Amino acid sequence: MKLQPLEDQVLVELDDATETFAGSVLVKPVTAKRDGVMIIGTVLAVGPGKRTDAGVRIEPAVQVGDRVVVPKWVGHAWEGENVRTMGKEQRLMPVGELLAVVLP
How far apart are CA 16 and CA 36, in angstroms? Predict the structure, then answer.
């Protein structure tokens, strides 16, 4: 099933025990746990953006394929409580909840 987020929503597939942040330090997969405050994920789908009161659409700052840092408990599973696709959890969240884009 394909999902097209509305407004400023994005669908993010969370990494499962890979790179994570502990404070401002990037923890590599050997020691990474999902117990951290932030996790990294990949943007799977992006909404068209939110409209201002004047009707101007503000495009989201991310695009499909971007690697992003998100707080551990932000977002909503888009199909039930424990959505898992090929072992990866997917969450729907507003763009404003994303903390950063991981640069190559």
Answer: 12
Q: Which domains does the chain have, with CATH numbers?
A: 9-101 (2.30.33.40)
pTM: 0.74
Q: For residue 53, count other CB atoms closer than 10 A to its CB.
A: 5
For residue 26, how many other CB atoms are within 10 A of its CB?
Answer: 12
Q: What tokens appear for 86 in the block? A: 């090929």
**Matching residue, tokens 């551990």:** 72
Cα(51)–Cα(83) distance, integer angstroms: 30
**Would you write out the chain's pLDDT as a tens digit for each of its 104 residues?**
677 899 999 999 888 755 555 556 565 544 344 556 788 999 999 999 999 999 999 999 999 999 999 988 888 876 544 445 556 788 999 999 999 999 98
State both tokens at 55.
């009707």
